[in-house]
Automatic annotation (TrEMBL), chain C:
Gene3D superfamilies for the chain: P-loop containing nucleotide triphosphate hydrolases
GO molecular function: ATP binding
Listed InterPro entries: AAA+_ATPase, ABC_transporter-like_ATP-bd, ABC_transporter-like_CS, P-loop_NTPase, PstB-like
Protein's UniProt keywords contain ATP-binding: yes
The keyword Mitochondrion appears for this protein: no
This protein's UniProt keywords: ATP-binding, Nucleotide-binding, Translocase, Transport
Lineage, uppermost ranks: Bacteria, Bacillati, Actinomycetota, Actinomycetes, Kitasatosporales
Residue ranges of domain ABC transporter in the record: 5-247
Superkingdom in the source lineage: Bacteria
Listed name of the protein: Phosphate ABC transporter ATP-binding protein
SUPFAM superfamilies: P-loop containing nucleoside triphosphate hydrolases
Spans through the membrane: none
Length: 334, 352, 258
């Protein structure tokens, strides 16, 4: 392609300005432009290379481990990669990760939506702004601090709740407590809920704030109570936004490492009761086992990390899809 | 159109029986007292329990009274209101407790000595020692990560906004999104497998910086992109129409216009990676001694220090962990506040 | 069914700012009353005090009396939610619920007030859509989203939604300002039909429209920017447009200001 035949940026013609799309084609004639474009395109390509490298190297190391695995990688309850023969599987980790995330979501999503509604629709106006600001800041508190708080403050306070759950819901089998320290997947779920609460609240609050005033007034003018206004105009408008906010929170809960590692007392078993200590999550297992692992052990941990990577990719992909659909939807009504 | 039949019209009175304004407060007070009484009588000790009982009494009580006096619709409205308030108060408890405990316990050993000494000569179970080595490590690792991420991130954003058309730009956008969702431990594993297991390099602060960069780059790209998009197109066209080359237009017009927003984004990204523990744990390894060279030998870092003190398990170590946590939070909060300050200060110029 | 509105000594505030001052007027049942006046003179604010919508804007506050037949809307023990059911409202921009179908939009108000049989709802929806001259255009797509209709159709959908609950009064806040001339004409025709059944109050910027649709016209003005709006006069539309009793009204109508 011969770009030099194109007109240089000569005296500005009074005619219609060139549409922005042609700027790129026109601008690459000067050395300065060429270098700058090269640099910025190079950075973009570097990002692609980085992602490809992440996927490739994780897969490579993981395949080294899995090829020597004598147990089924997906279904085995064992984690003994340094043994002979090496045997390890991710069933326990997958179970723990999913269960703790579900507990976290069940607690955090309704509460976060309620707080977002509180800030946008219920709190006195002078209170709503500052509360939103503080929750914004709480979203920035690092997970290690949540972990420290969870282990040293939350866990000692949970005996009462555990006893109560055992007394009243113990018969379900899921919430049976056999007097261990309350360092179970359930506690992990509670802590994760506290951690993702600010994130989900922040995004939901933004979504609720964007509900056009006229939709709310439409409901009000029909004689709707405040709750009916929310149900008729706020929640339908914000639904997809809340879902994608929850997905973001879920992504963080799935990948959370330190807080889980500090609160859970891990073991490679699956307990029917959520309140019994034991179990583990992908991220926690990597952090806890890493220090003492042999090279084979590290590769096995990388293999489990790869699975976590794929899971979070799927969750985040789903969130993006929902956000993209929402754009179409709100565009149609703009 | 003839007059419609009015069979579906409910009674047209404007006068609903309305409960007085103090009603919710009265119910709240009564529920709190009753909840406390019940748990005292049943011999329950946990604060969480009596709060839960009181909350349930409050929601149920106001619904029952309101349904009787005001009707079902009003009662449902009140239930929603009380649920929202209860949810808010329940959520405040852990978040307030987190802040309170960190400040209260952190302040105990946090002083000038703590900030300026390492753990080099202190046994883990003894009181004393400090976080100097960890602070130094964190600053170096975060500084290096920023030095890598900001140029790459800003240039990528410039490519996407100013040049990016077609398939490459779409791919970059997509993978930046994907990168945003990488769990930090996975980023750590990647650098581990490439840098340490395959290339055979040792544990070092720089290895940690690389993992932190992977976490930081997408955040910088995203926020810079948003800021560049806010620069009005007329400004670019005005400059181009004067015969200014595109690259100079970007450097002299576009970037200066959005520099406030970009700075804010970068500072928030720094705040985010400063607290990252998992990748640092895998790659920097940790030490009790001062190591000022991030390119060789293990270093310490503030978040990892908290973790190591916690796992140590003695009272003195817990004190140190809380003090380090307070330092870390203070650092991140200052970054956040300054970043927001810049955003607010610069807002009228860019965010028209 | 249609009720008389009797306003006396009404002030409305935004925070500490007095937006309209000391308004007294009577709105006759089964007639159309138009509010005209320059921008910012408080006519929309006044309209919103008639169904207690003013107080939902932050800082909004009202004192004075608004009698709907023999009940004061601002009296003790009055439920604003019940008021808004009795006094319906149509807004400047069409605002059907975007996530609801045409059918659900019309049924929304009824569903709030309890459960109805499907056949009953069908009846009311059809009757209201016919009442809003919209039935023939949408009867084949009742289950499509209301936001898919044209602007004029959406506004008539909003009118159908408002009349479905059989209010006593229908307030319209510049209902045609976002519409093209043909849709405007359709709405004006509709207003002519609806006044057989409802007390209608319409705020408009368009004086020809006020002259075309209304029986009585009220002229609002404000002394200066930052001063509260006041009612200058209210009279038969014909008189206001031919021989108003106040000079300011004549100046405004003849286009000398505003």
């Amino acid at each position: 392609m011969d770009t030099t035949t194109q007109k240089p940026a000569a005296p500005p013609a009074p005619g219609p300005a060139a549409p922005p799309d042609t700027r790129a084609a026109r601008g690459v004639t000067r050395p300065g432009d060429r270098i700058f474009l090269g640099l910025s395109r190079g950075s973009g390509i570097l990002v692609l290379v980085l992602m490809a490298a992440i996927a490739a190297f994780l897969t490579y190391r993981a395949s080294l481990a899995i090829s020597q695995d004598e147990a089924n990688f997906f279904t085995s309850f064992e984690w003994n990669p340094s043994g002979s023969p090496p045997e390890f599987g991710i069933a326990v980790l997958a179970f723990g990760t999913v269960v703790s995330s579900i507990v976290a979501m069940v607690i955090a999503v309704p509460v976060a939506v309620a707080i977002a509604l509180f800030i946008t629709h219920y709190a006195p106006r002078r209170l709503g702004g500052p509360i939103g600001y503080v929750i914004d800041l709480l979203a920035a508190v690092p997970s290690i601090v949540y972990g420290l708080w969870g282990a040293l403050v939350l866990v000692p306070h949970l005996d009462g709740l555990y006893g109560w759950l055992d007394d009243h819901l113990g018969w379900t089998g899921i919430l049976e407590w056999n007097d261990g320290a309350p360092r179970s997947l359930f506690t992990v779920g509670i802590l994760l809920a506290v951690m993702i609460l600010p994130i989900i609240t922040n995004v939901s609050r933004e979504v609720f704030r964007q509900v056009p005033r006229m939709h709310e007034e439409a409901a009000l003018a029909l004689g709707a109570t405040r709750w009916e206004v929310i149900r008729m105009s706020v929640l339908p408008f914000g639904r997809s936004g809340v879902i994608s906010a929850s997905m973001l929170g879920l992504g963080r809960a799935l990948g959370e490492t330190m807080a889980v590692a500090m609160v859970l007392s891990p073991s490679f078993t699956i307990n029917a009761s959520l309140l019994d200590p034991g179990g583990g999550t992908f991220a926690q297992n990597i952090a806890s086992k890493f220090n003492e692992a042999t090279e084979m052990g590290r590769d096995a941990l990388i293999a489990s990390g790869l699975v976590l990577f794929v899971i979070t990719l799927l969750v985040n992909g789903a969130a993006r899809l929902i956000i993209a659909r929402r754009k179409d939807y709100s565009g149609a009504n703009a | 159109m003839t007059h419609a039949t009015h069979d579906v019209r409910p009674s047209g009175s404007l006068r609903g029986a309305t409960l007085p304004k103090w009603f919710p407060w009265a119910v709240a007070g009564a529920s709190a007292a009753l909840g406390y009484g019940i748990s005292a009588a049943a011999g329950l000790h946990s604060d969480i329990q009596w709060a839960l009982i009181a909350a349930l009494l409050f929601v149920g009580g106001s619904f029952a009274v309101s349904a009787k006096v005001e009707g079902r619709r009003q009662a449902r409205d009140r239930t929603a209101t009380s649920l929202v308030w209860v949810a808010f108060l329940l959520a405040v408890i852990p978040l307030a407790s987190l802040t309170w405990e960190t400040v209260k316990r952190g302040i105990e050993v946090l002083d000038g000595y703590f900030l300026t000494h390492s753990m080099g000569v202190v046994a883990d179970t003894e009181p004393g020692g400090g976080i100097y080595h960890a602070l130094l490590g964190t600053l170096e690792q975060v500084g290096l990560a920023t030095a890598i991420s900001v140029p790459v991130g800003v240039l990528t954003a410039i490519y996407l906004v100013e040049y990016g058309r077609g398939r490459l730009a779409k791919a970059v956008t997509f993978f930046v999104d994907v990168m945003t969702g990488i769990p930090s431990i996975v980023a750590g594993l990647f650098v581990l497998s490439l840098w340490i297991l395959i290339l055979g390099m040792g544990y070092s602060g720089f290895a940690g910086s690389m993992a932190l960069s992977i976490l930081m780059i997408p955040v910088v790209v995203r926020s810079t992109e948003e800021m560049l998009k806010l620069v009005p197109n007329e400004l670019r066209e005005a400059s181009l129409a004067l015969g200014v080359p595109k690259w100079r237009t970007i450097l002299k017009v576009v970037l200066p216009t959005s520099v406030g927003g970009i700075t804010t984004g970068v500072m928030l990204a720094i705040a985010r990676i400063t607290g990252e523990t998992a990748p640092v744990l895998l790659l920097v390894w940790g030490t009790n001694f001062i190591n000022a060279n991030p390119f060789q030998d293990p270093q310490a870092s503030l978040p990892m220090y908290i973790y190591l003190q916690y796992t140590n398990g003695s009272e003195a170590a817990y004190d140190r962990a809380w003090a380090a946590a307070l330092t870390l939070i203070a650092f991140i909060m200052i970054l956040n506040l300054v970043a927001r300050g810049i955003a607010r200060w610069k807002a009228p110029k860019t965010g028209r | 069914m249609a009720k008389r509105i009797d306003v006396s000594g009404l002030n409305a505030y935004y925070g500490s700012f007095l937006a309209i001052e000391d308004i007294s007027m009577t709105v006759e049942p089964r007639s159309v009353t138009a509010f005209i006046g320059p921008s910012g003179c408080g006519k929309s604010t006044f309209l919103r005090t008639l169904n207690r919508m003013h107080e939902v804007t932050p800082g909004g506050r009202v004192d004075g009396k608004v009698m709907l037949d023999d009940e004061n809307l601002y009296g003790a023990g009055i439920d604003p939610v019940a008021v808004r059911r009795e006094v319906g409202m149509v807004f400047q921009r069409p605002n059907p619920f975007p996530t609801m179908s045409v059918y659900d939009n019309v049924a929304a108000g009824l569903r709030l007030n309890g459960t109805y049989k499907k056949s009953q709802l069908d009846d009311v929806v059809e009757r209201s859509l016919r009442g809003a001259n919209l039935w023939n255009e949408v009867k084949d797509r009742l289950n499509k989203p209301g936001s898919g209709l044209s602007g004029g159709q959406q506004q008539r959908l909003c009118i159908a939604r408002a009349i479905a609950v059989e209010p006593n009064v229908l307030l319209m806040d510049e209902p045609c300002s976002a519409l093209d001339p043909i849709s405007t004409l359709a709405i004006e025709d509709l207003i002519g039909e609806l006044k057989e059944r409802f007390t209608i109050v319409i705020v408009t910027h368009n004086m020809q429209q006020a002259a075309r649709v209304s029986d009585r016209t009220a002229f609002f003005n404000l002394a200066a920017v930052g001063k509260p709006g006041r009612l200058i006069e209210i009279d038969e539309t014909e008189r206001i447009f031919s021989n108003p009793s106040v000079q300011a009204t004549e100046d405004y109508i003849s286009g000398r200001f505003g």
